[in-house]
Task: inverse folding
């Protein structure tokens, strides 16, 4: 048998479909492409193998071994791969003894880095030096996994490189496009006659090449990253050592490209982590400032006589502080540092409630339609899930702009098997079971590949007045909950954002079963611990106005000293989580060691989930998220005192 790449048979499954057979395999079969195309593919297959191959052709996908008739009356064992492209079923055959077990999936290679281009050009020149008179190019699969981009072609005309830039890979698209599509070597000895180059002969004329031998560039896991090719100015077939050398060079290119990808991903991860720390820190400090603004506005309102002209202005201040809190929460969600309180939530009920609110705020030209199925419960932080739905619907409506369009919110119950999870390429954390899928589809302008790639990046926006935090926050919330968020979009076809969540039982509840303050005065001594003077002052004033005796501590060490001396008379502790010297967790453990039954309310601008998990079972009474309405804080303190 001939060398790899010259042992290929490609044809369509249609009756008398066009056949392309390489010289080596044609010699083994005793037929050329024109002869093979006179009969249907299955007519050439051994009767015992015909049904199996026929079933794959009918399905349009799959692989199997089936024997092909030869002119000498023998049956040659061929490994067949079936794939469907634009409605046409293509079949590729290779001698079974030459097939290696490599995945046929296509990966992604980035060529954005100038250093990468320089490295690839250097490797192409090395290959050319080993093959005098030949020219080399490296094409890499693009971000969308369906086109190639020129990684290097230092000795080829710029016009040729421009002609193949963005070339769609396919079952019969040149040497490199075919090699990348099927993940096999491809040898074209005569470009002028080979059907693989029927649509690209103009490009070959530009480059002055007549033969092209290609080998796929693969990652270490076998996924295709692109293809590497050698060109000859005259029709020619490669020697075995040339194909072996091309394979080795392609392997080295694959390692280099994969290394660059990993370095790029690590750099991006480091940038996002640093940005997350910055966003979390800013949001935490800003929440403390908002707490002071909100608290003083509430105190001022409660101090004014009824119907005061100042009340409305103060209420506007309080409302603005609440709105700013929402922005902080988006930053915290992006940073993954917001509190996640898991509870059963029924998605359809939440979406129906939101739709009434959203319909009023959306453009009159954007119709909102719901396609909700049954009772679909998930375990989630209620406020954060509401934020996800609102941001996705708002984003969909904004993509429609001033044109008439539709936003469709659809929910569906799914039962995913292990095979389904593999086919959807879900992370390992997803196990077979029941899931809820929520999709938000719009008829807007859609997104190109570059926009889709950055749609969840923080501060990236296509809107002139956008902040670029909405979808980044949605992604942060989804990641924190362990959900899968995906987007499907193309220019002119709108966008669909899909959220996949594990399904959970939602018990029926009637009304709010939580405790509500009955208005009765509670006389108590409360220890308030916070390193922010403004927050400490406003909380103290509000609790004292409610008739409570308040003790203040500006750090953990001071709090422990006060509590050690007065622990018998203290009814509740409001404790900040983030403080210098001793943090809230350390202080909490010291307080519990002194008096185990003391009720402690943990207060923080952000409550990290991993820290909250450490309090599980430790006797923490509750959490107060900054900035908090003073009425809410008072209610929680009264409840803690009563139950303490």
Result:
């Amino acid at each position: 048998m001939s060398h790899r790449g010259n042992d290929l048979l490609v044809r369509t499954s249609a009756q008398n479909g066009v056949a392309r057979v390489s010289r080596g395999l044609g010699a083994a079969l005793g037929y050329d492409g024109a002869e093979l195309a006179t009969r249907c593919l299955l007519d050439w297959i051994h009767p015992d193998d015909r049904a199996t191959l026929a079933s794959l052709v009918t399905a349009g996908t799959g692989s199997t071994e089936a024997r092909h008739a030869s002119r000498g009356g023998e049956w040659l064992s061929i490994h067949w791969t079936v794939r469907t492209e634009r409605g046409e079923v293509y079949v590729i055959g290779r001698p079974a003894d030459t097939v290696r077990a490599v995945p046929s999936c296509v990966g992604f290679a980035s060529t954005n880095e100038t250093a990468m281009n320089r490295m690839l050009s250097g490797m192409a020149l090395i290959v050319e030096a080993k093959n005098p008179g030949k020219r080399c190019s490296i094409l890499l699969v693009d971000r969308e996994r369906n086109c190639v981009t020129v990684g290097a072609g230092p000795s080829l005309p710029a016009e040729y490189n421009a002609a193949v830039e963005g070339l769609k890979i396919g079952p019969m698209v040149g040497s490199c496009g075919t090699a990348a599509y099927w993940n096999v070597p491809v040898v074209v000895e005569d470009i002028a006659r080979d059907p693989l180059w029927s649509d690209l002969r103009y490009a070959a004329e530009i480059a002055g090449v007549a033969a092209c031998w290609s080998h796929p560039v693969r990652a270490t896991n076998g996924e295709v990253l692109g293809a590497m090719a050698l060109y000859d100015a005259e029709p020619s077939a490669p020697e075995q050592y040339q194909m072996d050398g091309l394979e080795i060079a392609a392997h080295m290119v694959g390692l280099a490209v994969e290394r660059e990808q990993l370095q790029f991903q690590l750099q991006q991860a480091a940038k996002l982590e640093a940005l997350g720390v910055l966003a979390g820190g800013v949001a935490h400090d800003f929440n403390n400032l908002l707490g002071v603004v909100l608290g003083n506005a509430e105190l001022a309102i409660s101090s004014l006589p009824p119907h005061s002209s100042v009340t409305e202005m103060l209420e506007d201040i309080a409302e603005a502080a609440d709105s700013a809190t929402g922005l902080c929460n988006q930053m915290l969600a992006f940073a993954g540092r917001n509190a996640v309180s898991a509870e059963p939530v029924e998605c359809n009920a939440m979406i129906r409630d939101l739709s009434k609110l959203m319909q009023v705020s959306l453009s009159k030209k954007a119709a909102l339609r719901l396609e909700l199925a049954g009772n679909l419960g998930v375990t989630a932080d209620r406020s954060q899930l509401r934020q996800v739905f609102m941001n996705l619907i708002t984003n969909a409506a904004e993509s429609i702009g001033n044109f008439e369009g539709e936003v469709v919110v659809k929910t569906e119950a799914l039962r995913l098997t292990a095979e389904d999870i593999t086919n959807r390429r879900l992370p390992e954390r997803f196990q077979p079971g029941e899931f809820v899928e929520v999709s938000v589809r719009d008829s807007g302008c859609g997104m190109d590949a570059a926009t889709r790639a950055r749609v969840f990046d923080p501060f990236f926006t296509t809107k002139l007045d956008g902040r670029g935090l909405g979808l980044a926050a949605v992604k942060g919330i989804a990641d924190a909950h362990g959900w899968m968020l995906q987007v499907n979009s193309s220019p002119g076809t709108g966008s669909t954002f899909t959220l996949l969540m594990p399904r959970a039982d939602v018990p029926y509840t009637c009304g709010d079963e939580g405790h509500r303050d009955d208005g009765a005065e509670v006389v108590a001594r409360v220890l308030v611990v916070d390193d922010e003077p403004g927050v400490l002052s406003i909380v103290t004033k509000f609790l004292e106005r409610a008739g409570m005796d308040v003790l203040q501590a500006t750090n953990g060490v001071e709090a422990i000293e006060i509590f050690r001396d007065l622990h018998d008379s203290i009814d509740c502790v409001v404790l900040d989580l983030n403080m210098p010297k001793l943090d809230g967790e350390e202080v909490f453990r010291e307080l519990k060691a002194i008096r185990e039954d003391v009720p402690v309310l943990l207060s923080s601008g952000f409550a990290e989930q991993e820290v909250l998990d450490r309090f599980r079972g430790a006797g923490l009474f509750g959490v107060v998220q900054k900035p908090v309405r003073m009425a809410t804080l008072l209610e929680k303190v009264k409840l803690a005192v009563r139950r303490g």
In short: The first helix runs from residue 23 to 29.
